[in-house]
Amino acid sequence: GALAEATRAPLHLDWLEESAYFNDSLLWDSRPAYQGFYNTAGEDWSNPNGKGFTATVDAITTWVLAKALVTGAPEDEERLLAVADNIIDYLYESMFLPQVQFGFAEGYNSNWGLNAGSQGGSTGHVIKTAWCLARAYMIEPKHEYLVAAQYMIDDMMYNGGYDYNNGGLYANYNWGTGIVEQTKNHWMLEQGITGGLINYFLATDPVDRELNLGMADQCLGFYMEHFIDEEYGECYMATNALGGVTNADKSDAFKGGYHNIELSYLTYVYGKLFVHDEPLPLYYRFEESAEERQFKMTPLAIVGDILAISEVELNGEAYANYDGDSRVLTIPAGVGGIFKVTYFLDGELVSAEELESRPSVQVFPNPAREYFFLADIPDGATVSFFNMEGRMVKAYQGVLSGQPLSIADLPKGMYVVNVRAGGEVQQQKLIRQ
User: Which of 81, 132, 372, 426 has the most CB atoms lying inside 10 A of its own CB?
Assistant: First the structure.
């Protein structure tokens, strides 16, 4: 998918089309109540069965999103959104099941029934899912995609999935017991970086933005300090919580050929556009051809006219044969070389209507001494308090709007108040005087 999107080479496009055919026709469950990609099938494609994280989320990262961007076909965009809706309906919803103590459940049967016999999960999978929901939002801005993405990040960051002492996401967990393995893994840190940067850009609440960018920044800092092999190059596989290397392996099909390239590219792209709001220069090599060619330049998952081209160079000289607003590069027959294409963000992705539609919990008085109140919250909300190290220090169940809540037993300082009701999560900062 990535090669097809980047090169538009016939070989890669043919492979994408053929692979998509097998997935769409032989591994897609079209039953209305159970639609989604199966996990596995027999050698002859018989007996497709199982559903879950890998078949759903990795479908977006490996080919469903790329195919929707390359073809622009309505049916490919519909498939992308159907997979994103699977994330909402099953992975996200599992986070509210009483038997799921942390994260989400990853394994399901063919009818999306929970597989209670497999309780393993990873923080990287949860943050990766938040990243994919954000990418789907940039194609179709459904409010529930951002709500679920932020909730997933909050769960990891506030409930024990993050190392506030040394920085970075922890590794694996058991969703049934809530126990988190306090080790570090290269690709889970990667998800903290990419998922944090894109959700920083899309978030509108200052608390969420600070949290998401902080996760990305500290995951990248830990990765650069403890995972990069300064002597032989590349990165290690795993470390302990402090950064001591526990697995020095350098590469496998997933690590060298997938995660490291993805991390380097997206950190650069997201950092330029989403964090620093700077022009993004990218370089492309196009060989000469006997025919004129046109390329829709789409360096990241985005539709509409928010991303534009400001200038193009060919072999170091100004090049004028392009449409900046539509991002279409035209290359006449017999022309080739190194093209420098510079992109910039031209507008806001989150609409004013979207901002106005979002609920906002009110905290008063703020600062507070012994008691405070919440206004405009649904009845029966769960209210949790987190200190600035991300640890939950107090919680109330069944809270009503206007109900006095005591904080007399909390030390003075700043806290994040997390209000959850009906699948929605709202946050505000509170100062205890």
Answer: 132
- Exposure on the CB side of residue 114, measured as CA atoms within 13 A: 19
Strand partners, 413: 432
pLDDT > 70 fraction of the chain, expressed in percent and rounded = 92
Choose among 112, 117, 81: nearest CA to 94: 112
Q: Which residue has the tokens 């012994």?
A: 370
How far is it, in rounded angstroms, from Cα 287 to Cα 285?
6
pLDDT score recorded for residue 1:
65
Full-model pTM = 0.81
Nearest to 255 by CA among 184, 172, 186: 186
Q: Contact 92/104 with Cβ under 8 angstroms?
A: yes
Q: Within a 10 A sphere around the Cβ of 397, how many other Cβ atoms?
A: 9
Q: CA end-to-end span of the chain, whole Å?
A: 54
Which of 243, 105, 127 is CA-nearest to residue 188?
A: 127
CA dist 112 and 265 (Å) reads 34
Query: Considering the chain, what is the average pLDDT of its residues?
Result: 89
3-state SS of the chain is: CHHHHHHCCHHHHHHHHHHHHHHHHHCEECCCCCCEECCECCCCCCCCECEEHHHHHHHHHHHHHHHHHHHCCHHHHHHHHHHHHHHHHHHHHHCCCCCCCCCCCCEECCCCCECCCCCEEEHHHHHHHHHHHHHHHCCCCCHHHHHHHHHHHHHHHHCCCECCCCCCECCEEECCCCCECCEEEHHHHHHHHHHHHHHHHHCCCHHHHHHHHHHHHHHHHHHHHHCECCCCCCECCEEECCCCEEECCCCCCCHHHHHHHHHHHHHHHHHHHHHCCCCEEEEEEECCCCCCEEEECCCCCCCCCCEEEEEEEECCEEECCEECCCCEEEECCCCCEEEEEEEEECCCCCCHHHHHHCCCCEEECCCECCEEEEECCCCCEEEEEECCCCCEEEEEEEECCCCCEECCCCCCEEEEEEEEECCEEEEEEEEEC
Q: How many CA atoms within 13 Å lie on the side-chain side of 164?
A: 13
Residues 256, 199 contacting (CB under 8 angstroms) = no
Q: For residue range 41-51, what is the model confidence (pLDDT) as tens digits?
A: 999 999 999 99
Residue 98 · residue 159 · CB < 8 Å: no
d(CA 270, CA 222): 19
Residue 370 backbone zone (phi > 0: left; psi -120 to 50: alpha; other: beta)? alpha
